[in-house]
Amino acid sequence: MRIIGQSGCDNLAVVYMAETAPKKYVEFVESLQPPFPREEKWVLIVSTMYGCPVGCAMCDAGGWYKGKISTEDILAQIDYPVLKRYPDRHIPAGKFKIQFARMGEPSLNENVLTVLDMLPERYGADGLMPCLSTVAPAKASCFFDRLIEIKNNAYGNGHFQFQFSVHSTDDKIRDKIMPVPKWSLEDMARYGEKYFRPGDRKLTLNFALAENCPVSPDKIADIFDPDLFLIKTTPINPTLSAQQNGINNSLNDRNKKLTDNMIEKLRKFGFDVIVSVGELEENRIGSNCGQYIRRFLNDRSKIDAAYEYEIVA
């Protein structure tokens, strides 16, 4: 794997772009969560596909797909920042998160399961916590069943995070945002009942809040058990695709009253609600947004407040 570009700073986040084979490119990230130092929390975000076949309306990885990333090249994205900082592979961070959430839908690549099997033996990291985020493609049921086995065998006592990317409770809007056959909300709820066992972290329902993408607390409460699921709200990141598709962030001052009412109602239903807003500097770096490879390779276009790459000769 050859690093061909990077952006950012060590005290917040660094985005790497790498070539794993001729004309095959990946993005991956290492980041901190201020005010926590690296010894307390260190986060790696890796890609699982070259592009993505799903084509989510706010994601720049859609629109091109060049295949699944191999087990070796997923591990290489983890090894690069690990070996740079911890050559002996012993990571002292109290929480060492590896998120399979940068480029690609992880449940459509069975190599992700192989990587998850290997991680505990590959690194000396008591704080190891893999995190998997998915739109729950309908044809990935076997992947999700196997994931439960791996989680139970290797990542007990809350050392695994699982997240459904939901974004709206309106089925037609969900189909527009994530144009792929996928699980219904009821399917997700049933999976949560199979997945969860005492000591596990709750499954996350993630809503990237956008204007005209309704989120109904009543519908969520009717379908999901707050003892098994928590809610996370995030802003829509400033991607080119979101701009081009007219998807506007609603986690802002203009919509504050509406958003606050929704969150308050969810909490009254018994749900834990996390409002996750990254550092503004991360938008410039591009660490909390994805993904720039397609635009970067095609025409090197930029958008405001995101994706500044420094080319490495």
Short description:
The protein is of the alpha/beta class and 313 residues long. It has a single domain (2-311), classed as Aldolase class I (TIM Barrel). 31% of the residues lie in helices and 24% in strands.
> What is the fourth-level CATH superfamily?
Aldolase class I
- The helix-and-strand class reads alpha/beta
Identify the strand order in the major beta sheet. 12-11-10-9-8-7-4-3-2-1-13
Largest sheet: 11 strands, mixed
Gyration radius (Cα, Å) is: 19 Å
| Total DSSP E strands | 13
Shape: globular
Q: Oligomeric form of this entry?
A: single chain
SSE string: EEEEEEHEHEHEHHEHEHHEHHE
Average of pLDDT: 87
Count of all domains: 1
In the CATH hierarchy, the third-tier topology is known as TIM Barrel
Low-confidence runs (pLDDT<50, min 5 residues)?
A: 279-290, 301-313
Task: Quickly list its features.
disordered C terminus, two-stranded antiparallel ribbon, TIM Barrel, eleven-stranded mixed β-sheet, alpha/beta, 31% helix, 313 residues
Give a structural overview.
Strands 12-11-10-9-8-7-4-3-2-1-13 form an eleven-stranded mixed β-sheet. The model is unreliable at 279-290 and 301-313 (pLDDT under 50). The chain is globular and about 50 Å long. The chain has helices at 71-85, 111-122, 141-154, 171-177, 185-195, 217-223, 240-244, 256-268, 280-285, 293-298, and strands spanning 2-9, 13-21, 24-31, 41-46, 49-51, 65-68, 95-100, 128-134, 161-165, 203-209, 229-235, 273-275, 310-311. It has 313 residues and is α/β, with parallel strands linked by helices. It contains ten helices and 13 strands.
